[in-house]
Each structure stands twice: as structure tokens, then as C-alpha cells.
């Protein structure tokens, strides 16, 4: 069994699409569907990220999530701890004192200090946490950006914007015409053409 659950992977993948500021926030459902993962599962991750001040929820018709601070200030360790709750890599069961040849009373040398196996695991966890703390969401986003075609991020932004627009239309339609007029986004005036 993996130490870090798939929730961490899903959360990080979703957060990568929030790194670049967007006009409208992205819903957890849209982020999940974009990547072919369970919207219900992702919806359970985002409240943990919000509680850890990694994302903020934006309400309203075009609501969703945005990063709470710049991506360069959010470490992978922040995300892991928010989702997993800071659980240890290894939990020593202290079996070293249960050796059959000791009988009911293990000698003091067998249980003195930290278990040698536990000590290795502690060092491994410290190294892992240091690497996760050193790596930010921005670092990962840069790597993904270098690996993907130039227009991929643009396509994803377009897909997310289309989904936000569709959500708005559905919500406004469900409210009826009078209510929809009160909360519909205001049209941005177009510049008048001056060429003749």
C-alpha cells in the first residue's frame, strides 16, 4: 500500500490548473472531469485544501476555487499535509523486545534508544519531507509546461471557461428570467469602431 494516497495525486493535478490566474474560478467538478477522475472524490479534497489555506472558495453563479496565495509559496508538502493530515511514513511497533529467546523480560540493550529500523525510517521521512517542502506548485507547473505542447494550457483554459459559462447558463435558467436579469454578468461594452 502506498504511503501517500491517490487523493494527493488528484489534489496536486487539480491544483496545477489553478496556478495561472483565471477570470473565473474552476469548480472541483470541472477539474475532476477534465482529468477523468471522480468528481465526488475530488469534492472531498477541496475542503481540506481550503481549511489549510491553499485554496479559497468563491461563491456565486460563477463560483469555484482559486489558489489562496501564489503557487510559488505553496509547497507540495503543504498539499500533502493538508490532504493526508501529516501522518508518519512509518509507525514502529517495537517488536524488537518481543524476541522469543528473551522470554517475558527483554534485556535493556534490546530496547535501548530508538529502534534501528525506526531510525532509518525517520531519516527517510525527513528526507522526503524536505524534498516536498523544497518543491512548489509553481515548480511542478513549470515542468508540466516544458513537457506539454505550447497550446495545451490554452486548450485547457478554454475548456474550463466553457464549462464555467455552461454552469452559469444552467443556474440562470433554473432561476427564471426575472432573477436571472438581476444576477446575470454584465456585458462588457465593446469599443466602437472608428474606421470608416
Automatic annotation (TrEMBL):
Give one Pfam hit by family name: Rrf2
Q: Which GO terms describe its molecular function?
A: DNA-binding transcription factor activity
Concerning Gene3D superfamilies, the annotation shows: Winged helix-like DNA-binding domain superfamily/Winged helix DNA-binding domain
Report the GO terms under cellular component: cytosol
InterPro entries under this entry? TR_Rrf2-type_CS (IPR030489), Tscrpt_reg_Rrf2 (IPR000944), WH-like_DNA-bd_sf (IPR036388), WH_DNA-bd_sf (IPR036390)
Mind telling me what this protein is named?
BadM/Rrf2 family transcriptional regulator
Amino acid at each position: 500500500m502506498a504511503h501517500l494516497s491517490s487523493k494527493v495525486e488528484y489534489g496536486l493535478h487539480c491544483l496545477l490548473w489553478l496556478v495561472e490566474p483565471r477570470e473565473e474560478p474552476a469548480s472541483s467538478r470541472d477539474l475532476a472531469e477534465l482529468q477523468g477522475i471522480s468528481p465526488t472524490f475530488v469534492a472531498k479534497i477541496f475542503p481540506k485544501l481550503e481549511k489549510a489555506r491553499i485554496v479559497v472558495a468563491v461563491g456565486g453563479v460563477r463560483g469555484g476555487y482559486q489558489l489562496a496565495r501564489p503557487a510559488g509559496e505553496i509547497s507540495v508538502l503543504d498539499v500533502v499535509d493538508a490532504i493526508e493530515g501529516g501522518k508518519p511514513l512509518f509507525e514502529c511497533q517495537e517488536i524488537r523486545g518481543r524476541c522469543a529467546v528473551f522470554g517475558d523480560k527483554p534485556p535493556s540493550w534490546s530496547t535501548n534508544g530508538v529502534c534501528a529500523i525506526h531510525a532509518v525510517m525517520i531519516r527517510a521521512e525527513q528526507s522526503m519531507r524536505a524534498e516536498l517542502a523544497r518543491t512548489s506548485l509553481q515548480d511542478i507547473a513549470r515542468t508540466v509546461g516544458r513537457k506539454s505542447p505550447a497550446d495545451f494550457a490554452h486548450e485547457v483554459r478554454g475548456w474550463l471557461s466553457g464549462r464555467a459559462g455552461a454552469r452559469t447558463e444552467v443556474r440562470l435558467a433554473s432561476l427564471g428570467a426575472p432573477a436571472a436579469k438581476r444576477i446575470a454578468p454584465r456585458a462588457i461594452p465593446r469599443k466602437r469602431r472608428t474606421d470608416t
